[in-house]
Specification:
Length: 139
């Protein structure tokens, strides 16, 4: 005789990862974004919740140069979409002042980046030198 297997033995875990952190502020922000992801149809809230629930190993640090590079790349693509005849060789794309960068990772300084534009950054954690540099640049 054979045994009866539920769905032929294919049982998939459907629950997400829960944080093991003891940081109560992180738990509160996870609770907030759980509510926002459930009650709104915003993909931004779902992405932030997914990143907040990641383990510390998977939340690798982000340098200031990477932030500036990604903002300039996004601005260049917006210009190209607005003006299809543009060549796209504008290396000196300006960083907009109304842009806010949101990251769940640690923001670190990059000494190779000589001129830091004024960038508003929202993150869980900053290194001291990165915080000083962002504030000195007017972010």
């Amino acid at each position: 005789m054979a045994i009866d297997l539920f769905r032929k033995g294919r049982i998939v875990k459907r629950n997400g990862r829960k944080t093991k952190s003891t940081n109560m502020y992180l738990k509160l922000i996870i609770k907030l974004y759980t509510f926002l992801a459930r009650r709104t149809d915003s993909n931004f809230n779902k992405a932030i919740l997914k990143r907040l629930n990641q383990s510390k190993v998977n939340r690798f640090p982000v340098s200031l140069s990477k932030i500036v590079k990604s903002i300039k790349k996004k601005e260049a693509s917006k210009k190209k979409a607005a003006d299809p005849k543009a060549t796209g060789k504008d290396d000196k794309a300006k960083v907009p002042k109304d842009r806010i960068v949101v990251s769940t990772a640690t923001i670190t300084n990059d000494t190779r980046l000589l001129n830091l534009p004024a960038v508003k950054v929202c993150a869980l954690k900053f290194t001291e030198t990165a915080r000083k540099r962002i504030l000195a640049a007017g972010g």
